[in-house]
Design brief:
The structure holds two protein chains of two kinds.
Chain A: E1 17-28, E2 31-42, E3 46-50, H1 57-64, E4 72-77, E5 80-82, H2 87-93, E6 95-98, H3 110-114, H4 129-140, H5 156-169, E7 174-178, H6 186-201, E8 205-209, H7 213-219, E9 222-227, E10 230-235, H8 243-251, E11 271-279, E12 283-290, E13 294-298, H9 305-312, E14 318-324, E15 330-332, H10 337-343, E16 345-348, H11 352-355, H12 363-368, H13 372-375, H14 383-396, H15 413-425, E17 431-435, H16 443-457, E18 462-466, H17 470-476, E19 479-484, E20 487-493, H18 499-505
Chain B: H1 16-28, H2 30-45, H3 52-77, H4 85-101, H5 107-130, H6 136-155, H7 169-172, E1 174-175, E2 178-179, H8 181-198, H9 200-210, H10 212-217, H11 222-248, H12 260-269, H13 281-300, H14 305-330
Antiparallel strand pairs in B: 1-2
The chains are: A alpha/beta, B mainly alpha.
């Protein structure tokens, strides 16, 4: 095992450039992903990398970490130009990429995961378990992670820490974090940031990719913004920047944040009525969602909001419950999503990779997937109608792709989310439930999504947004329910939905 | 995650993008190009390869393997596998044949009973896999062993040869010198192509194979789709069994067993993904013809039989290797 950087702590020299790229370009076929990017990273800093989905962030860090080859340009490490760039060379040079999904093997212990690939060996290739444990325990000191616990049982932040530590103890000097906060709660995030600050003080340099301006402002020393594959601007001193400055660099125009004009509901406004919805995790005597209302549901994980949506959609079994639609139709809980769609109930999961779309299928086929049965004549598809439907949502949602025949997995996260949204909208639901619809997508697309929801509600659809994004709740919903233990604990409406109240109650 | 699709500057004519497409086209059609190359090579070694008789021979041989490969493609498309198909081919044929010879049923009804038995076995496999959550690889492996054993028990180790002339008609009849058996293969190809391209079930099969969890959330009844896929697969195995028996005019005590690896190899060579959700009927056809041409070709150019297995294996290896390169560079 290489000597741990802990012991060879150099005095962090804030003026020394550790990693620099010059005139970096990358083409895929005829598509330009990066063009003439110049960027330098100072040693011992946390350098934020910001940009919309598809701006080229992943490509850039992919090249920096040796996973992709640049089409043009040069990478300098400690001001030495690198001639051959691949993952192994970059890792030997001390540049590590920690991907969005933590690379963790669930059934191995935290210690084994930490030492993955750098397991201390005895003669004949036997693992030196004693040394492995003691090394791992030394590394995990102060992180609060028990070294013998199976990694599958650890929470998201611990898993991510293990990845960062592994990079560091493999000799990492520059650690690239690709959206490390994507699946973390507010507390986890604070914990992760403390951890990063600690490592920074020990001389580690971070490149930190995020969609969130406030995260960049909180933790970064410097920031660079990419837009359409080019360097759009940045600062060596984040302290002097505001969130608006960053948004403007990201979008290249004054960003107009979406603000829903809340409709006024008459007492006579028809509503979808839920009665006695009960399941293992939900206990809801009554809930009315008016036609055209956007209802926000929030609360801690396991509070019951997400579970309510999944019960109403037939993804989780419910013990009892009836759903009454404005037209007087009353029905039991659906037993399968296909019944829910047929009844006009649609749900979009927060985990779009696992549960949202068929990655290798085309955009068009994904959009029509849930509406297929209603569209078909008997067993046979109706290609004309199907194409018309897909094209309609492909166009109206502003999905950025060459055409709708492209596979979904070639799209950026925000556009994948739009495809998922198109799929549920194509079923023309009366009740639409969206679970964290803007998580992990950039601020521009986020406004698009909220605008789509707003427009949809104006056609009389009842919308439920399950969200932990305070900002989204304040600006885009008419009423917020705070769930705890499967019940509604608190309700806020209209002007009463404020950041501070949500924070106090959440 | 790829950022490429976002920067949508159009590919200029003559730019590197175009060259990539040409290489891509070659790699995407590698099965067909390899097939043509082998036909030419075998033809050069022995001009008998180009005779009508040999063409007919290849078509007949491709029929049984082809229908089995189509049967194998269905479980693969829903991201499962069915190792019991070749055993099912032999077992169901024996059931049909015994109904005809021992119970004296009319050959048509007997054949249908055999095919129904095969369908039922496919259905049963799928119920075990979906409802009982058995792992398809092991469940169908055990089914394969059961069916092989059952065939041995049914035949008592002897070969059934007393098939009626009606029963073997389909395998022996010719029209104007051309065998009729390949017509069944053609029908199976067309039927399967329509199923996969034009029906809700076909689209669902691709969706379930691509991502079963997301398919469920999209309103597809995943279990039902898998059960239907396996049942159709079993039906095709039954048809293949009937054809094989009537073509050979015999059912040996290990009928079908030798087809196992070829029936798996053919769809995969033809581009059906072992991870599910990808593949086409035309691809399967390409894989089937390639394997058949290799087998027939090696026999015709009189490669000593000790080397046939090895050389055939190397040729398959090359096809799979090129396909792996395609997947690596062109997804």
């Amino acid at each position: 095992m290489k000597p741990a950087p802990l012991q060879e702590t150099e005095t962090p020299n804030a003026d020394r450039t550790i990693l620099r790229v010059e005139n970096l370009g990358k083409n895929y076929g005829g598509v330009v992903a990066l063009r003439d990017v110049d960027l330098s990273i100072r040693a011992g800093t946390i350098h934020g990398l910001l940009g919309e989905n598809g701006a080229g962030k992943s490509t850039l860090v992919g090249i920096m970490s040796g996973q992709r080859q640049p089409s043009s340009g040069t990478i300098y490490l400690d001001e030495q130009p690198l001639h051959h760039v691949d993952v192994q060379a970059m890792e030997e040079a001390g540049v590590f990429l920690v991907t969005q999904e933590p690379m963790i093997i669930d059934h191995l212990s935290a210690a084994e995961n930490l030492m993955l690939g750098i397991w201390p060996k005895r003669r004949f290739g036997f693992v030196n378990w004693g040394k492995l444990r003691s090394d791992a325990e030394r590394m995990l000191e102060g992180t609060g992670i028990p070294s013998e616990t199976r990694a599958g049982l650890l929470d998201a932040v611990a898993r991510r820490k293990i990845n960062i530590l592994r990079a560091m103890f493999s000799g990492g000097k520059v650690i690239i974090l690709d959206e490390p906060t994507a699946a973390l709660t507010v507390d986890d995030r604070a914990q992760l940031f403390d951890f990063m600050r600690r490592l920074k003080s020990e001389g580690v340099t971070f490149i930190f990719i995020s969609h969130f301006n406030d995260e960049i402002l909180e933790i970064c020393d410097a920031v660079s913004v990419l837009r359409d594959g080019q360097y759009a601007g940045g600062s060596e001193d984040v302290g002097g920047m505001t969130s608006e400055d960053l948004s403007e660099l990201v979008l290249g125009r004054g960003l107009v944040l979406f603000e829903r004009k809340r409709p006024v509901f008459e007492p006579s406004t028809p509503a979808i009525e839920l009665r006695n919805i009960r399941s293992a995790k939900v206990d809801l005597p009554e809930l009315r969602i008016r036609s055209g209302e956007v209802l926000g549901i929030t609360g801690l994980p396991g509070g019951g909001g997400k579970e309510l949506a999944r019960v109403l959609f037939g993804l989780e079994p419910g013990r009892s419950g009836t759903i009454r639609f404005p037209d007087g139709e009353e029905r039991e809980l659906p037993e399968h999503p296909s019944e829910a769609f047929a009844a006009g109930i649609a749900y979009l999961s927060d985990d779009r990779r696992k549960d949202g779309s068929i990655a290798q299928m085309s955009i068009a086929h994904n959009i029509s997937l849930s509406a297929e049965v209603a569209l078909a004549s008997g067993a046979f598809l109706k290609p004309e109608q199907e194409r018309a439907l897909s094209e309609r949502y492909f166009g109206s949602l502003g999905i950025k792709a060459p055409d709708s025949g492209v596979a979904v997995d070639t799209l950026s996260g925000g556009n994948q989310q739009k495809v998922c949204l198109g799929r549920v909208l194509a079923t023309e639901p009366k009740l639409l439930m969206l679970d964290e619809p803007t998580r992990g997508i950039d601020v521009g697309v986020k406004q698009d999504v909220l605008r789509i929801v707003d427009e949809l509600s104006r056609t009389g659809v009842s919308v439920i947004i399950i969200s932990t994004d305070t900002d989204e709740l304040v600006r885009a919903v008419d009423r917020v329910l705070i769930f705890q233990g499967g019940r509604v604990r608190e309700e806020l409406a209209g002007e009463n939905i404020t950041r501070s109240k949500l924070r106090d109650l959440g | 995650m790829s950022d490429t699709a976002m920067t949508t500057s159009a590919t200029k004519p003559g730019s590197p993008g175009r060259k990539t497409t040409a290489t891509g086209w070659i790699l995407h059609n590698v099965v067909w190009i390899w097939l043509i190359a082998l036909v030419v090579i075998f033809g050069m070694f022995n001009e008998y390869f180009f005779t009508i008789f040999n063409l007919q021979n290849i078509m007949v041989q491709a029929t049984v393997l082809g229908i089995m490969a189509l049967a194998m493609a269905l479980p693969l498309l829903v991201a499962e596998i069915d190792l019991s198909i070749p055993a099912n081919v032999g077992f169901s044929a024996a059931i049909g044949a015994l109904c005809n010879t021992d119970l004296g049923m009319p050959f048509g009804i007997a054949a249908l009973i055999g095919i129904a038995a095969a369908t039922l076995i496919g259905f049963f496999n799928a119920v075990c896999i979906t409802k009982l959550k058995m792992v398809s690889l092991i469940q169908t492996l055990s089914m394969m062993i059961i069916l092989q054993g059952a065939l041995l028990a049914l035949t008592q180790g002897r070969t059934i040869t007393s098939l009626s002339s009606g029963y073997v008609w389909i395998g022996q009849e010719t029209i104007g010198g051309w065998p009729v058996m390949p017509i069944v293969f053609l029908l199976a190809i067309v039927g399967m192509a329509i199923l996969l391209r034009n029906t809700v079930l076909g689209r669902s099969i691709y969706a379930v194979g691509g991502n079963a969890v997301a398919s469920n959330s999209a309103g597809i009844r995943v279990d039902r789709v898998k059960i239907l896929a396996y049942s159709i697969s079993g039906f095709l195995a039954g048809v293949a069994g009937y054809l094989l028996a009537s073509w050979q005019m015999a059912i040996t005590s290990n009928q079908g067993a030798s087809y196992l690896l070829y029936a798996i190899a053919a769809p995969i060579i033809g581009g059906v993904s072992v991870f599910g959700g990808r593949g086409s009927v035309i691809g399967v056809l390409g894989g089937v013809l390639l394997l058949t041409v290799i087998q027939v070709g090696l026999a015709i150019i009189s490669v000593p039989s000790f080397y046939v297995g090895m050389i055939g294996g190397i040729m398959i290896f090359i096809a799979v290797g090129i396909d792996a390169i395609r997947v690596r560079y062109f997804g």
